[in-house]
Amino acid sequence: MPGRPRAHAGRDRDAAPAWADTMTAAVTVSELLREVRRSLATALPMLWVAGEVASLTRAASGHFYFTLKDARAQARCVMFRGRAQLLPFRMEIGQRIEALVAVSVYEPRGELQLEVDSLRLAGAGALFEAFMRLKAKLEREGLFDPERKRPIPAFPAAIGIVTSLAAAALRDVQAVLAQRCPWVPVIVYPAGVQGAEAPRQLTRALDQARAEARCAVLLLVRGGGGIEDLQAYNDEALARALAASPIPIVTGIGHETDLSIADLVADLRTTTPTAAALAASSGYDAALERLPEYGRRLRAGMRQTLGRAYQALDLATAGLVRPAERLAAARERVRAQAARLGAAQAGLVLRMRLRCQTAGHSLATLRPDLSAHAAALAQLERRLVAASTRSVDDAHRKLEGLAHGLAQANPAMLLARGYAIVSTRAGDVVRDAAMVDDGDEIAIELARGALRARVSAHQPGAVPAPAEAAGRVRSAAQIGPTV
Q1: Per-residue pLDDT tens over the stretch 152-211
Q2: Alpha carbon distance 16, 9 (integer Å)
Q3: Are 279 and 268 in contact (CB under 8 A)?
Q4: Rounded to two decimals, what is the model's pTM?
Q5: Which residues, in sequence order, are bridge partners of residue 252?
Q6: What is the DSSP string of 4-70?
């Protein structure tokens, strides 16, 4: 075939190994096959071989093993994983292909073997060569570098699809997204996926998605096909538009073995349109699986928080003394003091009478004739009784004054008269304007209700005038919500 290098008709005896001239020396089979392999590599550099795929095995390791044949001969071929995963079409038995091979020997079996570097469909060699040239050019420019590729968002707010409206790939993607995340908006940017106008339409669709900025991720998808069918995705302008897109792009073009320039430039390449939809919605699917566990953890945390809050409330309630209990204790103390005061007054009067009686007895003993002083004594007795009565009355008045003062000191009575209890946000009672600053939040307790207020100005040391007492607030209803 044209361009194929001509094999040597024979080998120069000077190039033979040293052991070849010793007719009596025996060599091992492995040594012989190793020399044959070296000779083939020297005599037959890499060349293109045309034929039909007669058998095909895709190993679990990723290597391809197949037989290439024509009408009169066949040869075993191997394409290792590193080259097989770059294959731009899906190999099938019966295909006419052209393989760039290095002729070698598989020594363990002693079989001739063609080690395949790349493949192209027979008749499609120009397209494949153009693909390889563009691939090499863009690779040199760094468009395939993993460092420039952006991560796919786990929870996209909206997902865009760039494909044909008539493509089965669109229906497959929509079905997957409707099942896994039906609440996520899906925006379709229609474009041709095959033909001469397809690259320009795909590029315009990407530009439209970029201008609208509605999607968090774009899916570039289409079904499988041959290298001619996927040629629209091997366009340089489309590749550069993909690289310049600010929106992460996931490709799902063709089948697993199909590879395009768009796949290499995209932020994530998947094997099929369905796989692209699964990749775009994987975050939601994983979150739904973890949601029950998050719910259990949240409920457990809420129970613990509420339990600690109830314990703190019980502790605070146990140490709280009600005002009514304080007033009852104060009244009991007043009653006890009043009883003690009455008993003391009665004892004082009795002692004074006894002293008077004793003095009168002594006087009668010393001066038996007291008739002349009887009137004076009666007067003194009346004065003594009057003084005792006045003393008792004064004590009662003093007791009533103490009781009245105690009633006036009752917080409930003070609040009912228009006074209020002002406390800071920390709960300290404000007794001096200097205890708060402008802008501080304070609590005001009234006879009926309470207020929350913020200090706008204060006058340290100021005392309200008597006229201001008439405007005291007795209820929270007297003040609007703007205080």
Answers
A1: 888 899 999 999 998 888 999 999 999 888 899 999 999 998 888 989 999 999 999 999
A2: 15
A3: yes
A4: 0.42
A5: 221, 270
A6: PPPPPSS--GGGS-GGGG-TT----HHHHHHHHHHHHHHHS-SEEEEEEEEEEEE-TTS-EEEEEE-
